[in-house]
Structure formats: C-alpha cells, structure tokens
Amino acid sequence: MKKKQLLIIIIPLIIFGIFTYNKYIDYKIDKENPIKEYSEKELEDYNKNSTKYYSDDKLALIAQIHVKRILKAPSTAKFPTLFKSKIITTNSKSYSISSFVDSQNSFGAMIRNYYTVELKQNKNGEISLIDIKVSE
C-alpha cells in the first residue's frame, strides 16, 4: 500500500521535472540565440537585394513575411529562432517551410499557429508563394 502511494507521488514529480527541464532548455536556447526583429520593409529589401541562392534562414524569413500578411494582428507575431523552422527541398527549386508563430487572435488572446509555406524559385531567381496553410 505504501509503495503505491509512494509511486503515485514520485511519478508525477518526475514527469513535472522533465517538463520543467525541457522548458528551461528551450528558454535558454532562445535567450542565447535572440531573434532580431526586422521590419517587413527590411525583409523585403533583403530579399530583393540578395543573391539568387537562398539559404535555409532566408527561406524561413521569406515564409515569415507571407505568414505575417495573413495574421489578424501581425504586429504581435513572435516567431521562433530560424533554426527551428523545418525546410524541405521538394525539388531543386521548390521549398516547403514549416514552423509556428505566436500571435494574438481577433479576441486579443495569444495563440500558437502552425504553418506550412510552399515557395518556388522562378527562372529569373525570384521566390514566389505557391501555397500557405496556417492552423487556426
């Protein structure tokens, strides 16, 4: 009987400890790799004036621009660090970028939306939006 009670107490403590440790590590990573806030104009200028090779970070930034355009409150958008974005090259010139954004909904509550943006590089080297899916 005492062993069951002890297990009932220890198991939730272990789970809570693991959860807390993971949150701490996420916080520490975000603090060590702060996100520089760019204005939409800066991001567009960066996209226009850059070379025709698109790094994973640049593709993630372009995806963030497109996601911001469809949010209810784009000024409240908080994106994770760029390396947390999942980027898949579907063929040599098509990319699928998946990540999340925390922003306010129409009621003012902060919510997390997961998104997938599909981009394609045109023959002239410019990136264009193919599709965008945002969870609500």
Task: Tell me what the structure shows.
By secondary structure, this protein is α+β, with helices and mostly antiparallel strands. The chain folds into two domains: 1-32; 37-134, Nuclear Transport Factor 2, Chain: A. The chain is 40% helix and 27% strand. It is built from three helices and four strands, in the order αααββββ. It has helices at 2-32, 40-48, 56-70; strands at residues 86-91, 94-104, 110-121, 127-134. It has a four-stranded antiparallel β-sheet with strand order 1-2-3-4, with helices on one face. A hairpin with a 2-residue loop joins strand 1 and strand 2. The radius of gyration is 20 Å and the shape is elongated. The model has no long low-confidence stretch (mean pLDDT 86).
Helix content: 40-55%
- Count the strands? 4
- Rg measurement, Å: 20 Å
Shape: elongated
On the 0 to 100 scale, the average pLDDT is 86
Beta fraction: 25-35%
CATH class of the largest domain: Alpha Beta
The total tally of domains equals: 2
CATH topology (level 3) name of the largest domain: Nuclear Transport Factor 2, Chain: A
The helix-strand sequence is HHHEEEE
Which spans of ≥5 residues are poorly predicted at pLDDT below 50? none
Largest sheet, described in full? Answer: 4 strands, antiparallel
Question: What is the strand arrangement across the widest sheet?
Answer: 1-2-3-4
Structural class: alpha+beta
Q: Which architecture of the largest domain per CATH?
A: Roll
Structure annotation, total helices: 3
Distance between the termini: 47 Å
